[in-house]
Amino acid sequence: MLKNRIIPCLDVKNGRVVKGINFVDLQDAGDPVEQAKIYSDGGADEICFLDITASNENRDTIYDVVEKTSKKCFVPLTVGGGVRSVDDINKLLNCGADKVSINTAAVQNPEVVIESSKKFGSQCIVVAIDAKKNGDKWEIFTHGGRNNTNIDAIEFAKKMEDSGAGELLVTSMDRDGTQVGYDIELMSKISSKVNIPVIASGGVGNLDHLVDGIKLGNASAVLAASIFHYGKHSVKEAKEYLDLKGIPVRI
Amino acid sequence: MNVTIVDYNSGNISSVINSFKEVARDKVNIEVTSDLDKIKFSDKVVLPGQGSFKSCVNALNQINGLIDTLSEFAINNKKPLLGICVGLQMFADIGYEETETKGLGWISGKVLKIDNKNGKYKLPHIGWNQINLVKDSKIFKGIENNSHMYFVHSYEFVPEDKNVVSATTEYSSNIVCSVEKENIFGTQFHPEKSDKTGLKIIDNFINL
Q1: Residue A243 annotated as catalytic
Q2: Nearest one of A169, A125, A194 to B116, comparing CA atoms
Q3: What's the CATH code, domain B2-206?
Q4: Which of A5, A218, B150, B204 could connect to B193 by a Cys-Cys bridge, CB 3.0–4.6 Å?
Q5: What is the DSSP letter of B197?
Q6: pLDDT, tens digit, for every residue of A20-67?
Q7: Domains of chain A as residue ranges with CATH
């Protein structure tokens, strides 16, 4: 039986781990390579690095982090943030990333998704959708949540599936950093619209939120940052809790 | 001993390289090459593969003499070869991803799209699934039944002779996830991404 995945996410800036509250007020929480190793040894099903300010800054440090991590962690490694071109994707994959998540570029130039999934295979192309509720719909935000595109998130999700994305990483911008739980309605709407796996992200504050993301949001995988890397919960605790709630996990 | 990972522009193979180097340490030399002589004279060969069946077969064909060299290695000389993911799928006679494409024909069978039961199951089949060991395979020495392995694929290898199947996994149907035919081994899952149990499989292959 296929297991639901738990994916700790490390927000990385200049080669160091940080976690933002709604993408501002950053705090330093350590070395990404060591953190990733702790997570994979603790049973993380995948590791995600998000180079959060990469759209604006020199991002060569992330290549070094990915290269070092991939030599120590033997679970899938997803890297996103500031990925603009097929060249960027190629470079990250060559450094040892298994999947690359594309956000702003997928919105501005969907060709990147079409071309990269053809070139490298859908299995390594994740489209990251940052969405915010506006009335009774959700709209896509880009540039780390700063720009509203007014694009409907659900329709965009379908379009990305058709363009060759292998997975969707869906983040609620309303919930990110708030610790009040995933936007379940958004997750379940997108999950029922597409036939590719959805990774829920944004807003996890406790272990029940992970359960809700899978049971109510129909996510295949749940991503969380701060509940893990400030030591509030271990990945192992999270898995045991999901198991207790009847969710299939790898233990 | 030399183990060669065939580098034929089949997509991202850095994780395969990292995992084999991690397991090999200083005991075994890991080569990453498409050099025909190096392949010919190595002790074992690893055939990775990412992307589509068609793109991988095309990539093999792009390198003059590569398919003949691999066939000589695995079929004539019966030296150990491990195919991973599309590397395994290419053992088949034919694949249907993108378009009908002829495979290596080393193990009779077809590569078909996984039946998603009218959208009830998501594709690709991504994530950790348990493997059901159906026969003793040398690469599963020390691997417990129902161990978790990391999968990412939308197509499955359906061999004609079920005796080659060494493990299956349960998704929308029972999917063949490992084969062994004499000296030819293949895994649909990614041992290089399957943590310690995956590394153990790589270790078993290196130590055959």
Answers
A1: no
A2: A194
A3: 3.40.50.880
A4: B150
A5: H
A6: 433 334 445 578 888 899 899 999 999 999 997 555 556 688 999 999
A7: 5-244 (3.20.20.70)
